[in-house]
Structure formats: C-alpha cells, structure tokens
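thread from #wetlab-drylab

HS: before we spend reagent money on co-crystallization trials with magnesium ion, can we at least see a predicted complex? here's what I'd submit
DV: go for it
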Amino acid sequence: MTGDSAAGSTPNSISIQSAVKIYGSGADQHVALNGVDVTIERGQFVSIIGPSGCGKSTLLRMIAGLEEPDAGDVSVFGVTPERACVAKMIGLVPQTPALLPWLNVLKNVSMPAKINSAADRRRQRIDGHLQKAKPDMRDLLTKAGLGDAFNKLPAQLSGGMQQRTAIVRAFGVQPDVLLMDEPFSALDEFTREAIQGQLLDIWDEQNTTVVFVTHSVSEAVRLSDKVLVMSARPGRITAEVDITLPRPRSEAMLKTADFHHFEDIIRDHLQTSWQQNALPSVA
Amino acid sequence: MVLMNPTESAAVVDAPRAEQPLPVKKVGKLSPRLAFIKPSFWLPVVVLLVALGFLWNFVAKNNPYLLPPLSDVWGALAHNPSYYVSNAWSTLQVALIGLAIGFVAAYLIAILVSELPLAKRAIMPLAVVLNVTPLVAIAPALVIAFGFGPQPKLIVTALICFFPILINVSTGLRSVPSQVLQVFTTLHASRLEMLFHVRMPTALPYLFTALRIVFPLSIIGAVVAELSAPGAAEGLGTTISIAFSNSQLAVVYAAIFCLAVLGSALLAIITAIERRALHWHESMLDNKS
Ligand SMILES: Nc1ncnc2c1ncn2[C@@H]1O[C@H](COP(=O)(O)OP(=O)(O)OP(=O)(O)O)[C@@H](O)[C@H]1O
Ligand SMILES: [Mg+2]
C-alpha cells in the first residue's frame, strides 16, 4: 500500500488481495473480513451475495475507500481507493436512496457534477481511464422512467422512484465503477424486476463496471456476469459462480430452466456457507 | 432499449379506471390558507377571550389596585398611540439588532464547533455555563459598564439569543445521515462543499426551531435590559418602569399589551418564513395534506 498504485494492480481491474478487516479490539475484536481475494474486470457486472453480517457492506465500503483494510491490498483500476475517489471514479448507491430532500430530482442527480470539479482533469491522467462524454441528466432520468418527475422533491416520490434517482445520480459522474449496496431491498418484487431491467439497459449503454450487493438469488443471477458467494465468521468468499446466460436478459428469462439452474447452484453454495456458520455456534 | 416493464403493463389493465372522472380534491373545502375564515377556526378563541375580558373587568371593578379596567388600558393606548408606537419601535430595534448579532456569532461558532472537535471541547462547556447563568442578572452590571446607551441592551439580547442557536445549529450541521455522507465522501467533496451543499441545508430545520424560540426571546432580552437601565429614555421596558413608579397601572398594561403584540408578530413572521424555506421538509409536507 505504498505509493499511488497498489501492488499487483492493473488499470483494467479492481483487485482485492488478502484483505482483512477487524472491528474493535481485545475481547470485543470482531473479524469482519479475513483473507478476501477478488478480481473484477473492467465492464463486468459482479454481485456479492451472502448471509446477513458476513461483511458484504464492509467489502463494498473498502472498495469505496470508506474503510481501510487492516491487512492486504485494494486497488481500483490501478490506483488506491482514495485516489479513485479524488478522481471521481466511484459512484455509490447506498442501501437507502440518500437523496438531498431540499433538491428536486433533476438538481439531486446534477449535484455530483458540481462537487470536486477538479476531478475530471485528474481522471484523464490515470492510465486506462475511459474518456466519456458528460451524460445528459434529463436523458438518463427519462430512461430510468423518471421523465415526468424532474421537478419533484424526494418526499413526493415513491420508494422505487427515489432509488432510481439515486442510481441515475451515481451514473451521472460517469464513474469507472458503480458500487451498489442492496439498492432494491426495500422494493416489491415487480418494481424490483422492472428497475433491474432499467439498470441493465443503462449499464449496457454506459459500459460501466458494477459491484452489486444483494440478498436475492434471482436478482444476482439476472444481473451478473459473476456472483461471489460469501460466508460469515470470519467473512470470506466461499465460491465464485460465472453466470453464462446470454444478454440481454429479459424478465421472460427468469422462468427458463437455464436460469433456475444457476439459481440452484448459488442456493447450494449459500446453504453450505450457512451451515458452516451455524455449526460452531451449535457445538 | 424497450423500457416496458410489468408495472407499466399493469397500468394497461387499470386503464378503464382512468375514464371515470377523477375525484376533484377540495370540493367545498377551503384551502388551508383560507381556513381561518371558518367559524370553527376562530370561534373558540374569541369566546375564550370575551370570557377572560369579562373576568378581568369583574376583578378590576372590585380590586382597582390589582388590575386596571380594560377601558382604561384602551384609553391609555388611544390617548397617545404614537407614544407606544415609537417606544415599541425602539424596543423592536434593540431586539432585532441584538438578535442579529447573537445569530451571526452563534452560527459562526456552530460551524467552528462542528468542524473542529478541539474547538467543540473548548467552547461547548463555556457555552453551557453561559446558558445556565441567568443572563437577566448581567444586565445591571452591563449598564454600569456601558452606561445608558444601546450597548448593554444589545449585549443582553445577543447573549440570550446565542445559546439556542448555537446548540441547534451545531447539532443540525452534524445530523447528515451517514449514507449521504458516504455518497459525498466517495465524490471527494471538500469540507467547504460539504458545508454549503449538504450540512447547512440539513441544519435549516434545526435553525428554524431555534429561531422560533429566539425571536420572542429577543423581545424579552430587550425589555429586561431596558428595565435595568431606568435612566434610559426609550423603549417599552422604560415605559413600564416609568409608569410603574407613577402608579399608572393602565399604562403598564398598555405597554405589556404592545409587547404581546410585538412577540406574536415576530413569531408569525418567522413561521411564515419557515414555511417558505422548509417547503421541502417532511413536517411541511405533512401539513399540506
Ligand atoms: N463500524 C463497525 N464497527 C464495528 N463492527 C462493525 C462495523 N461495521 C460492521 N461491523 C461488523 O462487521 C460485520 C459485517 O458487517 P457488514 O455490514 O459488512 O455485513 P453485511 O454482510 O453487509 O450484512 P447485511 O446483509 O445485514 O447488510 C458484522 O458482524 C458487523 O457487526
Ligand atoms: Mg450490508
């Protein structure tokens, strides 16, 4: 973790190497992550799934530079997470929409462009960074189904509309990677599937890398190129499943046998990791 | 890029419903703005006021040294209205200027305290001590120090307004939800950007809570300072102390009536401003429906 670029890093992937995160100290010490190794190629859509408390959010926060690893290395396209933030390479969609309630939808999604305006120049100096045109926020909002909500305040929106606004806001800075922490967990099944479709459309068009935390197996399978299965105590990655289903993935695909096949694989992995978890506390 | 989704196709099923005329909201209802026209709105308070007026006059008739008859109070006001207006104006000026000084000082210190933990540890204990000290008692000392000019009045008013603003604003600046903080941290927002774009707007509801406390308090501060500087020439507090030493009970109550009107007017103004400035806030959206 010396210098600007982390060890073993390349400009074309996000890499986490033997990352350890420990909360607390002494008797209260809690190992949230132990020896996590992940490589995410540029342009991939990767989901992280696992039981509650296994460290999914911690891992995401670590990529975002909001959490320092106690050991190991994190590199975001060849630079440290801190440098990635300075260059506005990271878009974050937290579990709650986290909009600014005094700004309307259009102003909310335009806010990141006003912040840290020196980032654009810094970004150009980073190897491998894809230079993209500034997106038209009205256009993006319309694609996300918010065409007639430009002037609405967050409090006047439904939960799904707020979450879509948060996603558009994160896409707005043209980040190299979008980090999403269970963004749809508060939505009903139908809204969820609809927004998944919109997310895939925008992702496809913007050519962004996405790291997506979820509790839903079908969500992980539908969206991802790769699913990382985690288990707890200590938090670690127990399986990597490549989802080779063709794209674009419509809602009709959710009912196919191929789709169920991948769901079953992931469910099996989750079951194993859940049992491994449960055993020590039973004994 | 077909964005058709189940929620949209579900709308097709619902389509016939749209042909029915939509119920028009507020038919036969007054908008909240005009609600005060309705008798059910103003009648209770008017009835209570009339009843209290009768009770007052009854007491005044039997104990003229306890309360002056309302007609005398009205007489005092009507006899020389410009006297009360000019004194009220003078008190209002002291109150508002003192409030402005207290506000600027408290807001700046609130920013300092919320940005620097060290400043917080240094300043907050002092501020709390200041708050529990009856500032009213400082007034005479200040009069001795500064004489009968406006300074002691402004200082007392500013001090009284200082603490509620400091506490509320410094809490407000620190009450940004953690997930909002995370979003702006990943954008590497500077402290200044954070302050102006996120923290200060977040603190607005807290600020208005303080202002609703502090606007009426500023009148109290001004009057107390005037009462402790009996040689001063102006202000409703001075009016009261002069009338008191002349046993003009009606004038005392006429001045008190003016103070009540001033305080209510300030509260109404700050509430109106709040309604505009916080139109986005949940508390305001609630009121509308
Ligand atoms: N700031 C913190 N201080 C102390 N412990 C923490 C902190 N953040 C997380 N932890 C602990 O680390 C572990 C992993 O937390 P994390 O939030 O990453 O889990 P998660 O997989 O996101 O769970 P969920 O699915 O419920 O969101 C938990 O046991 C939690 O108690
Ligand atoms: Mg989590």
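DV: Chain B touches chain A through 28 residues (CB under 8 Å).
HS: ok that's useful, forwarding to the group
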